[in-house]
Amino acid sequence: MTLETALTGLNDQLRSALPPELAEVLDADRRRAATEFAEVGTKIEDFTLPGADGVPTSLGELVADGSAVLVFYRGQWCPYCNLTLRTYQQELLPELAKSGARLAAISPQRPDGTVPDLEFPVLSDVGSTVARKLGLSYPVSAVVREAMQTLGTDLEQVNGSWELVHPAVVVVDRDRVIRFIDVHPDFVTRTEPADILKAL
């Protein structure tokens, strides 16, 4: 089963449980127009972000022995993100280990001490400092904000602001130069593991 198939199935299941008016709002948000994102060949400034456990990790550390795969995601509250990260752990992480590449996930969620059951760094880009430089962050519209609050997600508490990131995968080489970037304004879709391995 591809990641796309799994995500589509999850979306069908979640959407059927939503009131029609909320489903309509979230479906419209999926059709969000893309903005300008960082391009292949762009060099990323080094950064250091705290992990979910409070331990900091720098980009320099991640690319010390090879390329790094940076996965930008919305937060632990997002079921599509959780499915994607678990898939990457199962299908991508073992292959990356063979080439010395590192995997790290980055979200705007505050580090709360809750460590996800994942075998790679999960970092907090509070304020979306790193994501914004890559063109990945955006403010949540008032109508989507209301829908999310109705569903029990208050980003003001979780992230510190009503700002989200487009899910994305960015492959960076040892010189911190972007060699691959795949951005998904439609938050239900994600980059297939096979495409990331091909990019590497």
Automatic annotation (TrEMBL):
Catalytic activities: a hydroperoxide + [thioredoxin]-dithiol = an alcohol + [thioredoxin]-disulfide + H2O
Domain Thioredoxin: 38-200
SUPFAM superfamilies per UniProt: Thioredoxin-like
Role noted for this protein: Thiol-specific peroxidase that catalyzes the reduction of hydrogen peroxide and organic hydroperoxides to water and alcohols, respectively. Plays a role in cell protection against oxidative stress by detoxifying peroxides and as sensor of hydrogen peroxide-mediated signaling events.
Keyword Cell membrane among UniProt keywords: no
InterPro entries according to UniProt: AhpC/TSA, Peroxiredoxin_BCP/PrxQ, Thioredoxin-like_sf, Thioredoxin_domain
Domain of life: Bacteria
Coiled coil regions in record: none
Protein name: thioredoxin-dependent peroxiredoxin
Keywords recorded for this protein, A-Z: Antioxidant, Disulfide bond, Oxidoreductase, Peroxidase, Redox-active center
GO molecular function: thioredoxin peroxidase activity
One GO process term, biological-process aspect: cell redox homeostasis
A GO cellular component annotation in the UniProt record: cytoplasm
EC number: 1.11.1.24
Family statement: Belongs to the peroxiredoxin family. BCP/PrxQ subfamily.
Membrane-spanning residues: none
